[in-house]
Amino acid sequence: MKTPSPSPSGTAKRPSGAVDRYFRISERGSTFGTEVRGGLATFFAMAYIVVLNPLIIGTAEDVNGETLGIPQVAAVTALVAAISCLLMGVVSRYPFAIAAGMGLNAVVAYGVAPLMPWSDVFLLIIVEGIILLILVLTGFRTAVFAAIPPGLKVAIAVGVGLFLALVGLVNAGFVQPGDGTPLQLGDGGLNGWPILVFVLGLLVTIALYVRRVPGAMLLGIIIATVVALVVEAVSGGGDNELGWSLTVPTLPTGGGDLVGLPDLSLVGMFADGGLNFLARWSDIGFATVIMLIFTLLLADFFDTMGTMVGVAHQGDLADEEGNISGAREVLIADSAGTILGGLGSASVATIYAESAAGVGEGARTGIAPIVTGALMMLATLFTPLVSLVPFEAATPVLVIVGFMMMTQVVNIDFTNPALGLGSFMAIIMMPLTYSIANGIGFGLLTYAFVSLVMGRARQVHPLMWLISVVFLIHFAEAPINALIG
Asked: How much is the pTM?
């Protein structure tokens, strides 16, 4: 394992206590204060999920036309994220935060829920999480991670960076669906105060970053949020008259609006109808259930791997082969997070790419997600405060982090056709399909195919061939179903 690069706060030194030794704070060139700052940055970069996940999961109808409710989903989203982050920090000791996965929640809401009651949906997620945990404990999931060539792991990190940058630009409304084009600049131009807040936040964050100001990411979010609050107050408020992407930055009007006990009535919903899941799933057919589990498993498996690789590379926490010491513990915590997502009725919980915001602040240990988790726990009580930060103020950080992760592209050997083309497909398909898992799939398939046609099939790890076949089946799922039907 190569020695991690020192954080901005200083160089590596001898441990100063039990906490330092356990989390390897000094060993990784960090400080407790840097970790706390990183945890704060990660929290503010991903806190939007407490608002956005309820709008996806909480409003979608299941097969019976039932919905879960926005306040209820908001509460369990924050709770599951809090417990999962704490677990990740303690078990893995890496700066990875966990919450309900974007993209995965859409699969759950619009792909699974229309086929079964919500209680069965969450039972399905629990089963998927248990399968993931078994794959980790048997060593299969770690073996798959190790089988991917180092160059492709770097490409995955670069692709995640571009994906993050696009997420930031889209969530802020800086990039939108175009009139006759897939994407365009704003609504045809940079119009409106929210866009100005985003641009200002981006410029401020860039200035702080290049000047190496400690806490640049977090300061950028705070400054942009203050500006957003002022803009909204001066405009007179109203029903989102200014056109904020989602969260309208307004201060709570009273104590009653600031603090409140969370509605956790959805916790344990999977048990509704009994625990005989074979009987509960018999109505839709076991073949359909297996396909749904497979779809969730594949997306969760590789979304996690891609994010872990990307964030680890950014923080110089991977060795020359792109492997992470203690990856098994990371994946155990991630699998447990998925199970918790089902138990808490908050969708599939997975490692968040926004963890890179904290790493960008210098976070290198599990202290950062513990801080993020503690703030998520507070978020269950202070939902108005969590909702105070608009996308336009938080997403400039994602653009900067995307740049930081993009710089690793120089470590890819594009003169190697298999590695070059595979890396290219992985990098472009993540943002273009809005899916980390899709990017990894196309990258691995391209690498295997080019190796085959060049007569280098034996140089490809057997697990790579297995994964390629699995992805091929996954991408061809619709034609296969059409033929069977």
From this structure: 0.76
